[in-house]
Design the sequence.
């Protein structure tokens, strides 16, 4: 491996007493996932402390989305452990799995809003993290306090005036902000984001990243996001983790990375002949 | 292979590909069977031309339509439409859970999936007139039998198309709701059904048109509606009354089709 793994953050955590006391929100060990014969994750291990903002880097197809999906078991990993918020994700099923997912906000690359429903209904869906039933499906059936909370979440992303608009009539940036509001409605304890601004133009992307990271960090939430924008990773994360060829090749404080090491992440991996 | 070679040489590909020997035999068989079928269906040009004067005669005898029985005819027509409406409404209602079980992504279990698929195709393949006969025997003569037949027919039609519509919905919103801890019911009701709604409405309206046309015929086997009036009028050679009935049916079907296309444009 040409790139030395730097492990400054973990060392920092061990060194400073109050950081050591802060619990670990994400703890992944030996996570493996293949599609057919293609090994996408070859035993990934990482730990993320509460309140950190961590960027996951890697070239296209390096397995960033797969890693995030495996964490919430939207994809079933082939092996390894995932502990989220001190619960063994891989051991849960049914209601317990749902309750743990409910505590993790997830913003996708494509906003993934229900196109024919209003922005308000889409935000309201976040309440399904706590409660199911018809009152959580459409804003017209929702409880008064839930509608008010949903509107408040829209307010926080600056879209209170678009509450009644259909999701498929919003711009890309607005849609992504509605998706962020839906995650807020969930009242999450940490948030994942998978290339949240990859489908936006640079200006809108910057705006949405500012909003997203700002809102989540204000609440002291752990943020774990993927990006293929080095600038975003360096600007919005305390710590960078990189994947290359199915392995973790870099893990360290964002401030201490030099450009050469970061660029090496994106060099082509020689696949062994199968 | 041969096409590639032709392209490489810069030649224009042939207008028609020469079929393989098996394909050629298959074409031959199909044509032979078609010729035999003409024999089997007793198609006869002579018979058609010999029938023409009788057709003209029947047509002339229908004119002018006899309006003396318009009251009972209109009430039978109303009954026909009510059968179609209620049968479609019930059918659409029951199609929804059936279609959820019959769509791969939403079905709770592969066994449920295959059972639901099987039921739907069984409902579809048995013709509505046969369902009507079945219900006439089991629940008795009258519009209730017809309504049940239309309901089952609608379930066969809507079950299939509802399931397809739900399978074609985007997976993204469903994954987003799953990721935030929603139940299966929440994902279906909040993400799948709203996305498939235009298709549901479209299919249901088609289904209503189809049921209106079917409901006219069901009366012939005693399953209620105007069909029986038409049969009696024809059997008693009351052609002017039959003409009135036919015109009434025509107007009903036309109205339902217009209404349905109007609603389709409004809603979607
Ligand atoms: N559902 C899937 N089926 C088969 N292969 C997949 C699937 N999802 C992802 N892959 C493959 O796994 C690799 C990693 O994909 P992904 O995690 O989306 O990468 P990234 O998000 O880093 O661009 C890619 O080579 C991709 O082709
Ligand atoms: Mg990706």
Sequence:
């Amino acid at each position: 491996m040409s790139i030395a793994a730097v492990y400054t953050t973990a060392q920092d955590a061990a060194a400073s007493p109050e950081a050591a006391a802060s619990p670990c929100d994400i703890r992944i060990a030996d996570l493996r996932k293949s599609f057919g014969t293609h090994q996408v994750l070859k035993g990934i291990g990482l730990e993320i402390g509460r309140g950190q903002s961590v960027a996951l880097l890697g070239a296209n197809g390096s397995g960033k989305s797969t890693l995030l999906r495996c964490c919430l078991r939207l994809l079933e990993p082939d092996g390894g452990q995932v502990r989220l918020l001190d619960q063994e994700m891989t051991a849960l099923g049914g209601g317990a799995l749902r309750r743990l997912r409910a505590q993790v906000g997830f913003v996708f690359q494509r906003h993934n809003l229900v196109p024919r429903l209003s922005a308000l209904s889409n935000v309201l869906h976040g309440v399904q993290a706590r409660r199911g039933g018809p009152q959580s499906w459409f804003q017209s059936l929702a409880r008064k306090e839930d509608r008010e909370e949903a509107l408040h979440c829209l307010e926080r992303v600056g879209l209170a005036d678009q509450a009644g608009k259909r999701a498929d009539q919003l711009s890309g940036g607005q849609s992504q902000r509605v998706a962020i509001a839906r995650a807020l409605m969930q009242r999450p304890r940490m948030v994942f984001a998978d290339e949240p601004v990859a489908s936006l133009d640079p200006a809108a992307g910057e705006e949405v990243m500012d909003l997203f990271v700002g809102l989540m960090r204000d609440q002291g939430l752990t943020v774990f996001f993927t990006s293929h924008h080095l600038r975003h990773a360096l600007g919005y994360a305390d710590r960078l983790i990189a994947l290359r060829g199915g392995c973790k090749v870099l893990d360290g404080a964002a401030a201490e990375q030099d450009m050469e090491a970061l660029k090496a992440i994106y060099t082509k991996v020689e696949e062994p002949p199968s | 292979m041969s096409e590639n070679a032709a392209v490489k040489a810069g030649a224009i590909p042939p207008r028609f590909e020469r079929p393989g020997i098996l394909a050629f035999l298959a074409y031959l068989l199909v044509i032979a069977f078609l010729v035999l079928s003409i024999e089997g269906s007793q198609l006869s040009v002579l018979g058609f031309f010999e029938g023409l004067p009788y057709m003209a005669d029947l047509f002339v005898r229908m004119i002018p339509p006899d309006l003396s029985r318009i009251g009972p005819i209109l009430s039978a027509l109303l009954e026909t439409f009510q059968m179609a409406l209620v049968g479609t409404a019930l059918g659409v209602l029951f199609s929804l859970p059936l279609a959820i079980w019959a769509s791969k992504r939403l079905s709770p279990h592969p066994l449920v999936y295959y059972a639901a698929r099987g039921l739907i195709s069984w409902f579809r393949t048995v013709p509505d007139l046969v369902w009507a006969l079945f219900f006439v025997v089991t629940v008795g003569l009258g519009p209730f039998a017809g309504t049940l037949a239309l309901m089952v027919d609608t379930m066969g039609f809507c079950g299939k198309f509802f399931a397809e519509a739900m399978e074609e919905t985007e997976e993204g919103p469903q994954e987003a709701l799953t990721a935030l801890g929603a139940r299966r019911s929440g994902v279906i009701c909040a993400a799948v059904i709203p996305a498939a709604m235009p298709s549901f409405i479209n299919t249901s309206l088609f289904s209503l048109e189809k049921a209106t046309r079917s409901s006219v015929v069901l009366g012939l086997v005693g399953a209620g509606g105007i069909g029986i009036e038409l049969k009696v009028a024809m059997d008693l050679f009351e052609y002017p009354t039959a003409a009135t009935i036919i015109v009434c049916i025509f107007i009903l079907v036309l109205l339902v089709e217009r209404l349905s296309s109007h609603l389709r444009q409004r809603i979607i």
